Each structure stands twice: as C-alpha cells, then as structure tokens.
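User: Just a sanity check before I run the rest of the batch. Below are the structure tokens for the first item. I only need the designed sequence back.
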C-alpha cells in the first residue's frame, strides 16, 4: 500500500471516529524549512478531538523516517508529545481503541467537587 493510500484510509478512520483531521502538505517548498503550513519534518497527520490530540507519521512497510522527521519526533518527545509511526490502518484502530479505554478510565476516576 502506498503512503498516499494509507493516509487516505487513516484520515477516513479518524473522521469516522469524530476526530478533526489536519494533513500536512506533502510538498516541501524548495530549500525553505516549511512544509505547507507546517515545517519540514512535521508529522503527516494531526488529529484533534476535545482536548486530545494525536500526531501520526505515516510510512509504508519499508519506508524510513527522514532526518527532519526524526528531529521533529525528538523535539515533540522533549515536550511530552508522542508522534506515532503508523504503517497500516490497524495500528490506528488499535490506537483509537486504547485512547478510548484510557479516556473512559480517567472519566470514571473523576470526582465532582463544587
């Protein structure tokens, strides 16, 4: 499966689950440090739902992270943000399922205090 096809499937699944999906423009702009509205190395997909956000870097089964992508992932990790490397759509399904269970567990622990 091509990366473009994987991205289409991932965006479909996220939108179906109610996420607002933003895709980084694939084309870098010459020798500048920008990738569409973002900068080179930024992840392929940013999805937001409520107060939650997911950053996804999509790769084919044999695809490799470029230096700028690895640098972005390192910068994000330093801020406590995970960039998920996705190679097939089942990984997204599992990620959404795990996040939903975690969110449910957090909600059940919350106690209302006026």
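Assistant: Here's the designed sequence for the first item:
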């Amino acid at each position: 499966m091509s990366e473009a096809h994987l991205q289409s499937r991932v965006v479909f699944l996220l939108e179906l689950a109610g996420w607002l999906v933003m895709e980084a423009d694939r084309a870098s702009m010459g020798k500048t440090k920008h990738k569409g509205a973002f900068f080179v190395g930024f992840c392929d997909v940013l999805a937001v739902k409520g107060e939650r956000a997911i950053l996804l870097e999509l790769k084919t089964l044999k695809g490799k992270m470029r230096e700028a992508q690895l640098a972005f992932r390192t910068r994000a990790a330093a801020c406590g943000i995970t960039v998920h490397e996705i190679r097939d759509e089942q990984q997204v399904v599992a990620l959404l399922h795990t996040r939903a269970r975690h969110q449910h567990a957090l909600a059940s622990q919350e106690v209302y205090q006026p």
